[in-house]
Amino acid sequence: MSISRTLSWFGTFAAFLVIASITVLAQGAPASILNASYDVSRELYKNINPAFVAHWKTTSGADIELKQAHGGSTKQAQSVAEGLEADVVTLNQPTDLDFLVSKGVVNEDWRKAFPNGASPYTTTSIFLVRKGNPKGIKDWDDLVKSGISVVIPNPKTSGNGRYTYLAAWGYAQDKLGSPEKAREFVGQLFANVPVFDGGGRGATTTFTQRAIGDVLVTFENEAALIKNEVDGANFEVVYPSLSIEAAPPVALVTTVTEKRGSQAAAKAYLDFLFTEDAQALIAKHNFRPRSEAVLKANAARFPEIKTFRVEDKLGQWAELQKTHFTDGGIYDQITAKQK
Q1: Could you say which DSSP state residue 96 is in?
Q2: What is the spatial distance between Cα 337 and Cα 78, in angstroms, rounded to a whole number?
Q3: Does position 157 have pLDDT exceeding 90, yes or no?
Q4: Is 258 found in the same domain as 133?
Q5: Of 54, 80, 114, 241, whose CB count within 10 A is highest?
């Protein structure tokens, strides 16, 4: 083979490699990523997602579509474990992510992958009552009174419901002095729940549209959404004397991102949640931002409330999940007596 023909052959082969490389890169860049999230984060991600699309375009030069799936937090975790190809999960309880770790779809060190234990914001459980608060509901004690109807999502399928259960337990344990008294108190509270929806948004619909219940116990952001943006004429927000700090966590679904080649985009998406721009959107939707500057700028949205961390008062999440919420646990025992 002549030198000229050899050079020509190498040139053609090199061009082929370049084209092939570009093709592989194009195929590897995901056109979309899916975020499996919990019920009451719908409005938040309607704002977060287009902001990230613009950010991704600026930083990477690529277009991307953000898709959402919403439901009860535990239901969402189960769906991902069963094959829902979400690139990221933004759920509302650590136990749901630990469940995904046990199924081999999320890395065990997910808490260390992002700041603040992989939680971009916090919220807390508060009360939404009907206009004028006709039943005079002010604190957890009022929820166990005879004749009070309380709307709470199912703690077996909803992190919202689980936080409510633990908030009431922590309050009663402090006031009454023992876990045994707390168990009795929570049993009385859940005896006043007429219907258990699968997630927080379903409970909101039951209370606001089906007109069931005297009080809805839900996250602060959900109550604020209803009061400030949906129907402020018919509802009021009540802050109890003590509640629980909820720190909804996020994680990469590594089995999916590795399969789809979406690791970079998915990580960038979750990183974006901790930026000042995203934190401002988080505050706008009445979630308590991690950024001190953004929190200070939005202080009027967030009344002071005494809260406790689950780990500080009640124990580790894994043990609580096993003791209270697995089949046959304390929650099942409490509700079985009511049937």
Answers
A1: H
A2: 27
A3: no
A4: no
A5: 80
Q: Is 65 helix (H, G, I), strand (E, B) or coil?
A: strand
**Segment 179-226, tens digit of pLDDT:** 999 999 999 999 999 999 988 889 999 999 999 999 999 999 989 888
**What would the two tokens of residue 319 be?**
């043990």
Which CATH number belongs to the domain containing residue 154 in this structure? Answer: 3.40.190.10
User: Is the confidence at residue 29, as pLDDT, over 80?
Assistant: no
Q: What is the pTM of this model?
A: 0.85
318 shares its domain with 295: no
Smallest Cα–Cα separation from 198: which of 233, 245, 161, 239? 161
- Domain extent, residue 220, equals 122-246+304-336
Residue 337, SS3 per DSSP: coil
Structure-token pair, residue 66: 């953000």
CA pair distance 268, 139, nearest whole angstrom = 41
Domain total of the chain:
2
Handedness of CA 186, 189, 191, 194 (dihedral sign): negative
> Is residue 326 domain-shared with residue 217, that is, in the same domain?
yes
88 with 135, same domain: the answer is no
In the block, tokens 């931002």 appear at 289
